[in-house]
């Protein structure tokens, strides 16, 4: 029961709702339905480089090969839960030095598209005001509203408009905070329409 209350409190905080002591516990926007989306990942060494490998299949029908692609359907608020290496560590305290934990998450935008519609360059910065507001990010894409607890990270996506955006995940090793790994999957927001 205690873990259910903790999850409800985290969701309430991410949604910006108010926590109350009555039986309703959380006040949520009435017109939007929150949906918890879980992305599982692990750090692997690929060609001698540490990388975050997304284990969750794509939820985006238009991009079935993009592991970790998140699609937030029309009328939903996305509560995105990222779980690293099975989610056993809440912090680096008492963990072996080779344990990986989340460091931060940052939005990136596509700057160029070739004639076939393929992504050419994703870049940090110049994040739209809509995406900033939806994710609690600044103009550089830093999601300051993310809740990070070791191998767990929660992000709120208010999904107020229709757009694609990418999220770069960063993790560091407990024994060496300069040892970093990254990954860069897509979020497809439908806002309040389904024209994609």
SSE blueprint and pairings:
Elements: H1 2-15, E1 18-19, E2 26-27, E3 33-46, E4 49-54, E5 70-72, E6 76-84, E7 100-113, E8 119-124, H2 129-135, E9 147-149, E10 152-157, E11 162-173, E12 176-183, E13 186-190
Parallel strand pairs: 3-6, 5-13
Antiparallel strand pairs: 1-2, 3-4, 6-10, 7-8, 7-11, 9-10, 11-12, 11-13
Bulk shape: globular
Continuous helix count? 2
Our Rg estimate from Cα atoms comes to 17 Å
Helix content: 10-25%
Key traits:
196 residues, mainly beta, six-stranded mixed sheet, five-stranded mixed sheet, disordered N terminus
What does this structure look like?
There is one protein chain. The protein has 196 residues and is mainly beta. The protein is built from two helices and 13 strands; from the N terminus they run αββββββββαβββββ. The strands form three sheets. Strands 5, 7, 8, 11, 12 and 13 form a six-stranded mixed sheet that branches. The chain has a five-stranded mixed sheet with strand order 4-3-6-10-9, with helices on one face. A two-stranded antiparallel ribbon has the order 1-2. A hairpin with a 2-residue loop joins β11 (162-173) and β12. It starts with a helix and ends in a 6-residue tail after the last strand. The model is unreliable at 1-30 (pLDDT under 50).
